[in-house]
Amino acid sequence: MARQLLADWDNVEEAMRQSFTLQRGKISVAAMPSFAANVLPEALKAFRDRYAGVNVTVHDVINEQVIEMVREGRVEMGIAFEPSPNHNLLFTPLAVDRFVAIVPQQSPLAKKKQLSWQELLTLDFITLQRPSAVRLMLEEALARSGRQLDVALESHQLVTVGRMVASGLGGSAVPALCKTQMAAVCIPLSDPPIEKCVGAIHAGHLPLSKAAQALLDTLKGFLPT
């Protein structure tokens, strides 16, 4: 509680300083790795070109930690999958991220234009460790369609999952945002399709600073809503 009160005061003080100008300031942002690596750099370049005096600290952490850091006031804004309502956070949608299949280059499935889950699950399945939000979304979506996710290999990072797939160990499904990081073949996935809204989150009891709002406005220009 004391840490959150101190963080709240720091955020209020920073917001007061920035309310007069965007020429100087700082923002702390937490973003899940798929967004931090594939969208944020280009958006930050555009932001810094316009607001060169605003310094930005980026914490690239897993989805669950993004939500935790925002709730505890350790960062002003986070980029994550839409949280459940009981987190008491304000959510601004930025895009819908649809999962894609990834398979080894040498697999016969790599030649297909689209894959069903039935086809993908003929390969040993590789995914993130629990309690990853990605793992949970996959398990819940498959359970609704009467399937069970049998995991052969698991890792803590999606890049590692991609490397395992590329080496021929099996297949996986990952958010489309991170497909440029995958060393394997990415293919649209259906039956069932799995998608989730990605957006900005911040504490509901505090308004965004002018700098954070400016960054959020910049991000909106880099992703279709």
TrEMBL record:
Gene3D superfamilies from the xrefs? Answer: 3.40.190.290
- GO CC annotation terms, alphabetical: cytosol
Q: Which residues form the LysR substrate-binding domain?
A: 23-220
Cited CDD domains: PBP2_LTTR_like_4
**Can you supply a Gene Ontology BP term from the record?**
regulation of DNA-templated transcription
PANTHER family cross-referenced by the UniProt entry:
HTH-TYPE TRANSCRIPTIONAL REGULATOR YBHD, LYSR FAMILY TRANSCRIPTIONAL REGULATOR
Name of the molecule in the record: LysR family transcriptional regulator
Q: Which organism is it from?
A: Klebsiella pneumoniae
The record lists the lineage as: Bacteria, Pseudomonadati, Pseudomonadota, Gammaproteobacteria, Enterobacterales
**Gene transcribed to yield this protein:** gltC_2
